[in-house]
Design goal:
- The complex is a heterodimer of chains A (416) and B (245).
- Chain A is α/β, with parallel strands linked by helices.
- Chain A is 41% helix and 18% strand.
- In chain A, the strands form 4 sheets. In chain A, strands 3, 4, 9, 10, 11, 14 and 15 form a 7-stranded mixed beta sheet that branches. A 4-stranded parallel beta sheet of chain A has the order 7-6-5-8, with helices on both faces. A two-stranded antiparallel sheet of chain A has the order 1-2.
- In chain A, strand 10 and strand 11 form a beta hairpin.
- By secondary structure, chain B is of the alpha/beta class.
- Chain B has one domain: TIM Barrel (Alpha-Beta Barrel).
- Helices cover 49% and strands 12% of the residues of chain B.
- Chain B is globular, with a radius of gyration of 17 Å.
- The relative contact order of chain B is 0.16.
- The chains are: A alpha/beta (416), B alpha/beta (245).
- Chains A and B meet through helix 1, helix 8 and strand 12 of A and helix 2, helix 4, helix 6 and strand 6 of B.
């Protein structure tokens, strides 16, 4: 069981300008482990992003689209029945949901896809590629490409295309080409590798909208910064709702984009406890899981040094999770860093626990969360009994579960 | 310079192929240690790596095979693999093992110059040349910096893309060879997409010192009748050798 004390890292610089350093490092994590062909493009992207953030016109356009196209700000919703469910006679913690599931396309992913599409346009790139696991990032990317008239190719593992058939159809409806990836485990890891290979080949005309806080610098920073709006809004909304900072932030972690977006504006507020929930698949002990931070060792995958599920020789291992979006053997380098310096805690939830949580939240709140998001909800079972009454918890309700209905029905033995 | 994937179809055959390549005129052999997620490789070498891994090939196995060849093989062997295999063993340990096995150098395609700074002195202290890559997208100043730091030779990637056969080589490769030659004396070898004697002749005419042939050879080995891999590789190597005039 994790302690209830807030994390108080010693002797580390939590300031934004130290995360990452100029070299793209979060402590010993991060960096740029990519073929030379991509190095100029990464530099160009870093420059374009830093210029864009300085440019009022860019910020105005982004904010206007976030408001009128995406539907931000998303509500901070008090989950009263869930709070009651975990309450005791002397109270219990209060549970709030940051409703990223209410964004256009049904998940937080569009915050980043939109921002990067605007950057691509600034850089004069008319062709967009992306990888996707659950399909949420693919749908978000296909959506913004349709919105701006950009050519769009989405790489998706064949196994994930089967699990997320609905999202595949949505992407095609939006005019994107969905390119099946059959090598390796035919999941997110292989889709990402294939997207990087496409980028190496077409880098002069193409922008790669990487969908998580993973990959080579500047992506972990760039994707985090586009999602930081989640945490910024949360901070304001908490002040409004209960007059202070929240006590606990809870979010699921695959690559870690929704968690990083929520955590980022709170990192220097060390009274705020941050918990990332990974996928334990069939259970950590079975070896069939995707709990990278819990079980991984330091290594390089897809251009960044971070924690990684790998065998004794350094070959990347297959990850397992019921949730396609968490089924990834790597994790964003900043999460590895936050864990190493003790600023954030990371725990893991099995497929079964996530399924139970999905049903519970559906029944108690009338909100069907995505299977990914259900992992964060599931941790409430372990967390709530350890908290003092009056503790304010914010869960990032990162996506809605419509896409998962077939998987859930299959697991519960129902036919649709 | 032929490239082959160690362990495809098996380490014993790889070792015989290497001896045959020397006999048929190879100057340097580039030996791939298979990795699960080879970002810089096209389908032919990806599949070769998967086959080698399924056959149980490990870095230790490759080093043992190489050690056993020490007395028999006189041309240099350069190891081609990805950074995670180095970090997993520790850079010092990996370089120790590679040097003890008799390797002459390393090519790590996902370790650009900025990330290679730590590895460079470690490799050098063990007598290993850390070969750096230049791509068609590399700006001129950076290209100079890379070719000055590269040891043994500079590996010029001939295409913006992953490894694999191409029907034509881009003319701009000729200019790149010239640019590198102008800024330093390190030899230049061209790789990625070089797949037949015609390409080798072209690369020679541009003034490059070496041509690296990977996917085409890996495919030829894979398509050989079982038991004929060594001879097929040798025949192909001879065709390429003859093209260098």
């Amino acid at each position: 069981m994790t302690s209830t004390l807030p994390s108080q890292p010693k002797n580390v610089d939590l300031a934004v300008n130290a995360r990452p350093t100029a070299l793209g490092r979060f402590g010993r994590f991060g960096g740029q482990y990519v073929p030379e062909t991509l190095m100029p493009a990464l530099e160009e992207l870093e420059r374009a992003a830093s210029e864009a953030w300085q440019d009022k016109a860019f910020n105005d356009e982004l904010n206007q689209l976030l408001k009128n196209y995406v539907g931000r700000a998303t509500p901070l919703y008090e989950a009263k029945r869930l709070t009651k469910h975990y309450g005791t006679s002397n109270g219990g913690p209060r549970i709030w949901l940051k409703r990223e599931d209410l964004n256009h396309t049904g998940a937080h992913k569009i915050n980043n896809a939109l921002g990067q599409a605007l950057l691509a346009i600034r850089m004069g790139k008319q062709r967009i590629i992306a990888e996707t696991g659950a399909g949420q990032h693919g749908v978000a990317t296909a959506t913004v490409c349709a919105r701006f008239g950009l050519k769009c190719v989405i790489y998706m593992g064949e196994e994930d295309m089967r699990r997320q058939a609905l999202n595949v159809f949505r992407m095609r409806l939006l005019g994107a080409t969905v390119q099946p990836v059959t090598n390796g485990t035919a999941t997110l890891k292989d889709a990402t590798s294939e997207a990087i290979r496409d980028w190496v080949t077409n880098v002069e005309t193409t922008h790669y909208i990487l969908g998580s806080v993973a990959g080579p610098h500047p992506y972990p920073m760039l994707v985090r910064d586009f999602h930081a709006v989640i945490g910024q809004e949360t901070k304001e909304q908490c002040k409004h709702a209960f007059g202070r900072l929240p006590d606990v932030l809870l979010a699921c972690v695959g690559g870690g984009s929704n968690a990083m977006g929520l955590f980022h504006p709170f990192i220097e507020n060390t009274s705020v406890r941050m918990i990332g929930v990974e996928a334990a698949g069939d259970g950590i002990a079975t070896g069939r899981h995707a709990a990278t931070i819990t079980e991984g060792r330091i290594g390089v995958l897809h251009g960044a040094m971070s924690l990684l599920l790998q065998d004794s020789d350094g070959q990347v291992q297959e990850a397992h999770s019921i949730s396609a979006g968490l089924d990834y053997p790597g994790v964003g380098p900043e999460h590895s860093y936050l864990r190493e310096i003790g600023r954030a805690e990371y725990v893991a939830i099995t497929d079964k626990e996530a399924l139970n949580a999905l049903q519970l939240v559906s029944e108690l709140e009338g909100i069907i969360p995505a299977l990914e998001t259900a992992h964060a909800f599931a941790w409430l079972e372990n967390l709530c009994p350890t908290l003092k009454p009056g503790t304010e918890i914010v869960i990032n309700c990162s996506g809605r579960g419509d896409k998962d209905v077939n998987t859930v029905a299959e697991k519960l033995g129902s036919k649709i | 310079m032929p490239f082959l994937m160690a362990g495809d179809p098996d380490l014993k055959t790889s070792s015989e192929i290497m001896l045959k390549l020397e006999e048929k005129g190879a100057d340097i052999i580039e030996l791939g240690i298979p990795y699960s997620d080879p970002l810089a490789d096209g389908p032919v070498i990806q599949l070769a790596a998967s086959r080698a891994l399924s056959g149980g090939t490990t870095p230790s196995g490759v080093f043992n095979m190489l050690s056993a060849l020490k007395e028999k093989l006189s041309i240099p062997v350069i190891i081609f693999t990805y950074s995670n295999l180095l970090f997993n063993r520790g850079m010092e340990c990996f370089c120790d093992e590679a040097a003890q096995a008799g390797a002459a150098g390393l090519v790590i395609p996902d370790l650009p110059i900025d990330e290679a700074e730590k590895l460079s002195p470690i490799a050098e202290a063990r007598g290993l040349d850390l070969v750096l890559l230049v791509a068609p997208t590399t700006p001129e100043e950076r290209m100079k910096r890379i070719s000055m730091s590269s040891k043994g030779f500079t590996y010029l990637v001939s295409v913006t893309g992953v490894t694999g056969e191409r029907s034509v080589l881009q003319e701009r490769v000729g200019c790149l060879v010239k640019q590198i030659k102008e800024c330093c004396t390190t030899p230049v070898a061209v790789g990625f997409g070089i797949s037949d004697p015609k390409h080798v002749r072209q690369v020679r005419s541009w003034g490059a010192d070496g041509a690296i042939v990977g996917s085409a050879l890996v495919k030829r080995i894979f398509n050989s009748k079982p038991g004929h891999e060594v001879d097929e590789a040798g025949d192909f190597c001879l065709e390429l050798r003859e093209a260098t005039g």
